[in-house]
């Protein structure tokens, strides 16, 4: 989301997250599970793919937005 933790760390729409910390991400379920194990405010290294290149970013996790 615009202005969210991932965007603030430089991730863009279309980036594919492949790892949260040391945990591989290969599905939405594994992404959700990896994030659920971390507390809001935690800093985590996110590995992602953009245009076929693997990159990392340090992301400070926020809280889940409620509608």
Can you describe this structure?
By secondary structure, the chain is α+β, with helices and mostly antiparallel strands. It has a single domain (5-60), classed as Roll (Pdz3 Domain), CATH 2.30.42. It contains two helices and four strands, in the order αββαββ. It has helices at residues 5-8, 28-36, and strands at residues 16-20, 23-24, 43-50, 53-60. The protein has a four-stranded antiparallel sheet. It is globular, with a radius of gyration of 11 Å. The two termini are 14 Å apart. The model has no long low-confidence stretch (mean pLDDT 91).
Structural topology:
Elements: H1 5-8, E1 16-20, E2 23-24, H2 28-36, E3 43-50, E4 53-60
Antiparallel strand pairs: 1-2, 1-3, 3-4
Total count of domains: 1
Summing up helix and strand content along with how strands pair, one would put the structural category as alpha+beta
Reported by name, the CATH topology is Pdz3 Domain
* N- to C-terminal distance: 14 Å
The CATH superfamily is: PDZ domain
- CATH architecture classification name: Roll
Q: What string, H for helix and E for strand, traces the elements in order?
A: HEEHEE
* Average of per-residue pLDDT values: 91
Order of the strands making up the biggest sheet: 2-1-3-4
Level of helix content? Answer: 10-25%
Number of strands: 4
What does the overall shape look like?
Answer: globular
Percentage of residues in DSSP E strands? 25-35%
Number of DSSP helical runs:
2
Low confidence ranges: none
CATH class annotation: Mainly Beta
Radius of gyration in whole Å, from Cα? 11 Å
Largest beta sheet, briefly?
4 strands, antiparallel
């Amino acid at each position: 989301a615009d202005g969210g933790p991932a965007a603030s760390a430089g991730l863009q729409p279309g980036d594919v997250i492949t790892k949260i910390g040391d945990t591989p991400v290969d599905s939405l379920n594994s992404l959700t599970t990896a994030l659920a194990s971390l507390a809001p405010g935690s800093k985590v290294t996110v590995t992602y793919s953009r245009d076929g290149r693997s990159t990392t970013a340090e992301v400070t996790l926020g809280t889940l937005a409620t509608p």
